[in-house]
Predict the structure.
Amino acid sequence: MTEQQREALRADVERIMTEAGVLANRSLIRRIVHTGVGLGEDGTDRLNLKIASAALAEMRDAFRLFQPYADVPKVTVFGSARTQQDDPLYDQARSVAEVLAERGWMVVTGAGPGIMQAAAEGAGEKMALGVSIRLPFEEKPSAVVADETHSVEMKYFFTRKLMLVKESTGFICLPGGFGTLDEMFELLTLQQTGKAEPMPIVLLDEPGGTFWRNLEHFVLETLVPAGVISPDDFDRVLVTDSAADAVAEISVFWKNKDSLRWLYDVLVLRLKNRPTADEVAQLNKQFTSVIAAGRIELVDALPQEVSDNDRVELPRLALQLGQREVGGLYLLIDAINALPSAD
């Protein structure tokens, strides 16, 4: 393609966006269009084009599903599709979802049977959202979330997992097989690597159950001594057999923490309540080991946050977090939520 042809293409793309009424985020839409054309220029084979096309279409469908509920807190519940209705785990999933829905949380599931069905039943039709997967066996959309306004169906596991994780601010995993473990370990990986904002993760078992305790033993007795994870990496996870404790973990995590943002090597924690100078001093004393340099400081919105109008009205703490101190960050967030000023 000559430069003259490229210029004509750019003009056509601008015209099409204008005619379609695309006014916001034009640079990103422009990039998507040009990437699609680039795939054609590259001679990308048909199978790869089908994957790219289907993935983008599925993400669009999912974005449209979640958009009306952008301001509603959501918790994703993972678990086995094979769990039967007379299993104590079924009751656990249903009860924890019911309480969270009563407290204003929407419950997101994979829209299948088993634990997913139980959580959807607990949340109720208005508070349940489903992201189902097309499979030749086992999984069918839950009747509770089968309505097209509350569910979306996907072909690929990777797009489905993206949406189950992206939209929620809390996660509850009940015992399950390969799929459940895959989802749970991806959550932990995203948290460990800092690719996702810290969120509460609960591994919920039946009363007296040992499924997740056995995993905890493996982590602490095998993975930590082997040096493949940090000693505090599992601190971010609550292992419990209590539905009440699971609800409390999800709710309390957001008691004082609003959000966070990385600005180069500075981590900014935005809070709902302004801590006192004495409280900040206590945090510095308690969390010296997780700070790479300097101190935890109570600051106003930083210039880039002001420029982006990013939660500028909130009080915030700024610090330089030590490398691989994500587990320590969770403990810091717990301490911030426990401050007297948070009440």
Summary: The CA atoms of residues 34 and 151 lie 30 Å apart.
